[in-house]
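Figure 6 in text form: structure in, sequence out.
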């Protein structure tokens, strides 16, 4: 036993408090949804033609977005896997990570700059005599935006799978003189086939629960998803019954998707390899290099042009005027306070849950209660996947309506919702690092009698600083760029940077929106970069 009984009780109690807090926060919101409207009215609203139409559109756009993202990612991943020495390959792969680190609203602004009514592409087509053949709003815009954000994710995951193929496979393919078609059929496709179901399920989940993109690019009632309809039911129509029905429908929808994802088979290992250098026989001919280079460059332009347009438009705006406005500093201070608070809360809750799970493992108890606590502590971070942020915000909005002005509680609620939203990422970053560190240092620390604050300061913090910084910076960036919960509680007296950008877009002050988007995007990117650049800390210092 590496922990004293007092330490064991303290750690497990901390995890239990966090678990009860998470379950209570989500449970009370769900209970408020059920309580705010009778079962009969919920069932009646559930089968309204309007709600059924929204459900059909939600599933349709998610399915089409998934298919397009996966299908378009395959040739890009193949080209990058074949051309390992393509000029700028490393930077193109890094470019594919940028959309995942940017607030969704900024990506939408960039797409409007390229594909919108006054965008670069439509302006070029108008010069050629074509009458605006591309519309960024409605279903086509939603699909375009989802592909912009999710195709790079699919491509990176596929590329990682293809790069794990042992070099001996390519040596054998070269010896047998296999043509590109045979290589795809017998080597690449079996690898891609094993990862595509998981990738497609993840993208489908992201698209089915998409909020900001649909809110920004949706074409009215004909192009509205369940989450956006929840927001509209409360914000504009103030129809709690419909909002409750839609929220319960969203919970059922996400539960079904998560259940389907859990049934997907895990990717198969590609086998042993001697670690030889990879030399693919299908990417050496000039025609193959030209084709692969064209595919990669088209993908880079598709991703890079909207991002570049945000930078150019932001620099053209009157940044000095924006920086002199009181509303900017007010919204920046609000966003900063919320994001720091949410990141700290997510980090503290994650550490208590991770520590409690490890304490249960150390006790080695086979009791059903211990196993249930271990599973619950691990699954608590995924509750936000089952009950999305907009549903949580709706439940608490309805619960607090009877207590006066809901905006008074808005900052605390948004901090809690954003912390819960970032828990899945924070837990997955911290838990592996925490377990490895404890396994390496726990026995030596116990033998030297280093406990309590001294162990935290001398042993734990130096080793866990980097993963904690990574988790904190990404949680902060995620909260800083979030529009979901803020969209429901935002008002003239409670403004965050994303809400300010969205409101300036809605009032057609696009120059201001461009400048604010540039500032917000740079801050989020800097936070993302900071999470991967922490100072090197060595556990060896403690061992020495």
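Output sequence:
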């Amino acid at each position: 036993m590496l922990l004293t009984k007092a330490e064991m009780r303290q750690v497990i109690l901390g995890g239990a408090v966090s678990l009860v807090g998470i379950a209570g926060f989500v449970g009370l919101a769900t209970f408020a949804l059920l309580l705010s409207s009778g079962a009969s009215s919920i069932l009646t609203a559930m089968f309204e033609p309007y709600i059924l139409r929204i459900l059909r559109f939600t599933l349709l756009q998610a399915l089409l977005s998934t298919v397009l993202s996966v299908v378009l990612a395959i040739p890009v991943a193949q080209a990058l896997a074949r051309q390992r020495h393509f000029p700028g390959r490393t930077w193109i792969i890094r470019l594919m990570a940028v959309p995942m680190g940017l607030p969704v609203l900024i990506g939408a602004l960039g797409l409007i700059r390229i594909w919108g009514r006054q965008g670069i592409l439509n302006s070029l087509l108008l010069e050629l005599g074509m009458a605006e053949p591309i519309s960024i709003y409605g279903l086509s815009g939603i699909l375009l935006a989802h592909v912009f954000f999710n195709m790079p994710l699919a491509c990176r995951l596929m590329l990682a799978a293809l790069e794990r193929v042992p070099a001996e496979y390519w040596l054998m393919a070269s010896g047998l003189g296999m043509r590109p078609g045979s290589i795809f059929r017998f080597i690449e496709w079996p690898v891609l086939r094993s990862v595509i179901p998981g990738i497609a399920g993840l993208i489908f989940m992201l698209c089915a629960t998409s909020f900001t993109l649909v809110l920004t690019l949706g074409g009215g009632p004909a192009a509205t998803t369940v989450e956006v309809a929840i927001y509209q039911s409360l914000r504009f129509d103030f129809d709690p019954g419909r909002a409750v029905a839609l929220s319960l429908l969203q919970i059922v929808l996400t539960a079904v998707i998560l259940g389907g994802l859990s049934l997907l088979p895990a990717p198969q290992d590609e086998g042993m390899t001697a670690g030889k250098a990879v030399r693919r026989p299908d990417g050496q001919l000039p025609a193959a290099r030209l084709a692969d280079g064209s595919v990669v460059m088209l993908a880079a332009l598709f991703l890079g042009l909207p991002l570049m347009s945000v930078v150019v438009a932001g620099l053209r705006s009157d940044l000095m005027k924006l920086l002199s406005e009181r509303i900017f500093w007010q919204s920046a201070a609000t966003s900063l306070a919320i994001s720091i608070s949410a990141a700290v809360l997510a980090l503290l809750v994650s550490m208590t849950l991770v520590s409690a799970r490890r304490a249960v493992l150390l006790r080695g108890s086979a009791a059903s209660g211990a196993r249930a606590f271990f599973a619950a502590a691990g699954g608590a971070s995924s509750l936000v996947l089952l009950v999305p942020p907009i549903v949580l915000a709706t439940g608490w909005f309805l619960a607090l309506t009877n207590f006066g002005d809901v905006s008074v509680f808005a900052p605390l609620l948004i901090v809690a919702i954003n912390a819960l939203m970032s828990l899945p990422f924070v837990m997955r970053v911290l838990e592996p690092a925490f377990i490895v560190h404890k396994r390496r240092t726990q026995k030596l620390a116990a033998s030297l009698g280093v406990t309590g604050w001294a162990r935290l300061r001398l042993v734990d913090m130096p080793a866990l600083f980097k993963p904690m910084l990574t988790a904190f910076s990404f949680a902060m960036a995620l909260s800083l760029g979030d529009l979901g919960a803020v969209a429901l509680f935002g008002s003239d007296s409670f403004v965050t940077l994303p809400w300010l950008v969205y409101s300036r877009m809605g009032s057609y002050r696009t120059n201001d929106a461009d400048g604010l988007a540039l500032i917000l995007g740079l801050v989020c990117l800097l936070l993302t970069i900071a999470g991967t650049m922490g100072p090197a800390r060595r556990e060896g210092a403690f061992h020495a």
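Caption detail: Residues 282 and 485 are 49 Å apart (CA to CA).
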